[in-house]
UniProtKB/TrEMBL annotation:
This is Protein export membrane protein SecD/SecF C-terminal domain-containing protein. Residues 343-503 form the Protein export membrane protein SecD/SecF C-terminal domain. SUPFAM superfamilies: Multidrug efflux transporter AcrB transmembrane domain (SSF82866), PDZ domain-like (SSF50156). GO terms for biological process: protein transport. Pfam families: SecD_SecF_C.
Length: 518
């Protein structure tokens, strides 16, 4: 038997299977450092500079390797204290004012390089149908533009772990699907429901809204002379006149001098002037859905232009860095949907608590293991032989491992339909191995030539069955044809599993069973 095992392991078909197993074992681990992963940072947190996806491995000198250690360290915090957080990206310090809430939500560091879907990780999903002004079907260009506006709006709110995609059903209706997994996802529903209301205010007085902006918004560009980043945009004549009048009225007749914003009153900022030095001028505030995203005074030259009664429709926002410039551009664009869109109608919305998602994942893993054990028991009862049962079970586990490895490589989301697809692929694989085994046993007592001929006959049956399965799944894999996007994961994973079976696993098993039964 030992010599047969050596022959099996040295055969090219089996070596190919082993190669894919090793490759899967290499790509599945995350190789991430110890610590907890930042899942969400609230807007008003003193640690708003920490990005989602960073790893916290130290809090106030306490080593953080698990979620329990993080919870314990947070419980020791007291109000009005200095907090130091060490992440892979650097050290962050903040002062807690009358609270012990850091404004940070964390999760256990994932040990596997797999992206789990909403039903396993928790999160929110909103499906929107864009309704046009004239009631005609939406064009693909307008649909893509609307999706881009939604993406920009969500980016402004710091929601990064999200997916915005356009989908269509079999009848031709078009939708926008917005998903966000994990903690903080409950904000998605409220944001996509919002109208994306842009307002420009001087101190607390509204000057104009997004309707006054004349598209398109210019791209951020770096001013070579000053080193600042600039975003040009245009407003209509009425808004330009209102901006001039309200700004001049809010400005003092004799602006006080300053060296920084600290020297100015609330609502005012320090505008640099080569003639008069720094002077305090009213801040121009940009708000998206009542959330301030940018605030700065007008330049001294623009203020002088307005003071002498001139109207300026072409404006330029100046920022200190590219990142802020891009955010301002997003705010200006996110304030208005394409003119062809009347409203975004919510077709469906779902929210799964992350804690429930963990329970679903645990239940799915238990169900999958139970199914594999049940398959092994049935196969053993059928053949009453470990030398046949064990290879079948090993092939089953190797197929599952390779499917997960490929899912990791292509960044395919593992959700409940995908797990159902894995189970379906495994079930199909076991059926095919039983066909190979039965045909092989027919020639087991005859010559080797008959054994190989019977295995070839089995492969003919298997290829026909596999082709039928793949053809059936192709319709589900293409949602524009079937309209069943929720089942796409099931179809894709089933196809991957069947292809792995007929191209890698089944040839290896056939050679192994051929050598075993010689």
């Amino acid at each position: 038997m030992a010599s047969k095992i050596k022959r099996i392991l040295k055969h090219p078909r089996v070596l190919t299977l082993i190669f894919f197993i090793v490759l899967s074992l290499l790509v599945l681990p995350t190789y991430q450092p110890d610590g907890v992963e930042v899942a969400y940072v609230s807007d008003n947190s003193v640690f708003a500079g920490i990005d989602e996806g960073e790893y916290i491995y130290e809090l106030n000198g306490n080593s953080i390797k698990t979620l329990g250690q993080y919870t314990s360290a947070v419980s020791e915090l007291v109000p009005n204290s200095q907090v130091t957080i060490q992440t892979k990206g650097g050290t962050y310090r903040g002062l807690l004012m009358n609270t012990t809430d850091l404004g940070i939500t964390v999760r256990e560091t994932s040990r596997v390089n797999l992206d789990f879907g909403l039903d396993l990780k928790g999160g929110a999903r909103v499906t929107l149908e864009p309704i046009t002004v004239d009631g005609t079907p939406i064009t693909q260009d307008v649909l893509s533009s609307t999706a881009s506006v939604l993406t920009a709006r969500l980016n402004v709110y710091g929601l990064k772990n999200m997916v915005v995609r356009t989908i269509s059903d079999a009848s031709g209706r078009s939708f926008i699907d917005v998903e966000m997994a994990g903690e903080g996802s409950e904000k998605v529903v409220g944001i996509v429901k919002s109208v994306g209301k842009f307002e420009l205010k001087i101190i607390n007085e509204t000057v104009f809204s997004g309707e006054s902006i004349v598209p398109p918004i210019g791209e951020p560009q770096k001013n070579v002379q000053s080193g600042s980043w600039e975003i040009p945009f245009t407003i209509n004549t009425k808004a330009a006149g209102q901006l001039r009048d309200i700004y001049v009225a809010a400005s003092s007749e004799s602006p006080s001098s300053c060296t920084s914003d600290i020297d100015c009153s609330e609502g005012y900022g320090c505008a640099s002037s080569t003639i008069a030095g720094g002077i305090c001028l009213p801040n121009i505030r940009m708000l998206l859905d009542d959330r301030e995203t940018f605030s700065a005074p007008a330049s001294f030259s623009l203020y002088q232009t307005w003071k002498f009664g001139e109207v300026t429709k072409d404006l330029v926002v100046q920022t200190g860095g590219q990142e802020l410039a891009e955010e301002v551009q997003i705010v200006l664009e996110a304030g208005r949907l394409p003119g062809e869109i009347k409203e975004l109608r919510i077709v469906s919305q779902d929210y799964i608590d992350p804690k429930l998602g963990k329970d679903f994942l645990r239940g799915a893993i238990i169900s999958a293991l139970g199914a594999l054990l049940a398959v092994g028991l049935v196969v053993f009862i059928r053949y009453r032989s470990l030398k046949i049962t064990l290879p079948i079970i090993l092939i089953v586990f190797s197929e599952v491992l390779i499917i997960l490895g490929i899912a990791s490589l292509i960044k395919w989301s593992i959700d409940l339909p995908a797990i159902a697809g894995i189970i379906a692929a495994v079930g199909t694989g076991v059926d095919q191995q039983i066909i190979i085994t039965d045909w092989a046993l027919r020639g087991g007592k005859e010559k080797l030539w008959n054994l190989r001929r019977n295995i070839k006959k089995a492969f003919t049956i298997i290829m026909v069955a596999a082709s039928t399965t793949i053809a059936a799944m192709m319709a589900l894999a293409y949602p524009a044809f079937s309209g069943l996007y929720a089942l796409r994961g099931f179809a894709i994973v089933t196809i991957i599993g069947v292809l792995i079976g007929i191209l890698v696993a089944r040839p290896a098993y056939a050679k192994a069973i051929e050598i075993i039964l010689e």
